[in-house]
Predict the structure of Enoyl-[acyl-carrier-protein] reductase [NADH].
Amino acid sequence: MSFNMLKGKKGIIFGALDENSIAWQTALVAKEQGAEFVLSNAPIALRMGKIQELGEQCDAKVIPADATSVEDLEKLFSEATEILGGKLDFVLHSIGMSPNVRKKKPYGELDYKLYMKTLDISALSFHKVMHVAEKQDVMNEWGSIVGLSYIAAQRVFPFYTDMADAKSLLESIARSYGYRFGKAKNVRVNTISQSPTVTKAGGGIKGFDVFFDYAEKMSPMGNAPADECAKYIVSLFSDFTRFVTMQNLYHDGGFSTTGISEDVVEMILDAKAREDEEKKDEE
Ligand SMILES: NC(=O)c1ccc[n+]([C@@H]2O[C@H](COP(=O)([O-])OP(=O)(O)OC[C@H]3O[C@@H](n4cnc5c(N)ncnc54)[C@H](O)[C@@H]3O)[C@@H](O)[C@H]2O)c1
């Protein structure tokens, strides 16, 4: 349903690959709420993904940019403001990738070159996006910038390896740049810490199904789906959240503040009962 929450607002949405992507869902909701925007993704994703389809659906231009390249970002921001005919009110950074996670390297055996890539793609690119936006002075007063994080920034999830470090850095960058942009232009910067979500980025993690199911059982509301995350992001782009800044905001159905749930207890009791049965059979 449209409340025209983003009527008259312009922005850039990074990271839509296919319809499962959080950025894809956000583009659909932003469009429905009256926003105009440019879509961007890495050149390889433009070749492999379906972003042009989304562009047609949202009447949005698609501009390739490797978010680790300041040069690409400079071109993107100047083209986007030209196409949109003015400065920006929102930017979504929905970018993450770890070659170490893809190669299933354990945390103690990370390839350091790849580690640097993970940090560059998944965290430093957030700094670069804001650095270019600031230098080109493309943000409107009371604009909003959002990045996506995961609770592995605060708690250990062994299979998330160097992505956990990248997410900690991402959240720190949101605070530091949020201070700077808040002072300069009343622009807010936040990260949303989202539930495990079935997407290309999520699917690359070893044991993803297990921690998806575990989070589902731990959260009183279950895992938050991508389309609901999109609505939360749009609320942060709207004028209803102007003084929310420098925060890491959980969108996780209650996972982050639940110690243990009845569902998890039941799961453990079931497993224990099966173990006891097996032992009995062996005796
Ligand atoms: N899926 C989950 O379980 C989950 C949970 C919490 C947070 N997140 C975060 O949400 C964000 C979006 O991921 P998603 O789950 O929608 O998956 P996704 O795979 O659909 O999106 C990740 C995007 O990053 C883009 N990307 C990778 N390298 C890039 C580069 N160099 N330049 C520009 N773009 C690049 C990819 O092309 C892709 O579109 C990521 O930051 C991810 O870490 C995901």
Summary: Residues 14-15, 17, 21-23, 41-42, 45, 66-68, 94-97, 121, 148-150, 194, 196-197, 199-202 surround nicotinamide-adenine-dinucleotide (CB under 6 Å). The domain at 10-258 is CATH 3.40.50.720 (Rossmann fold).
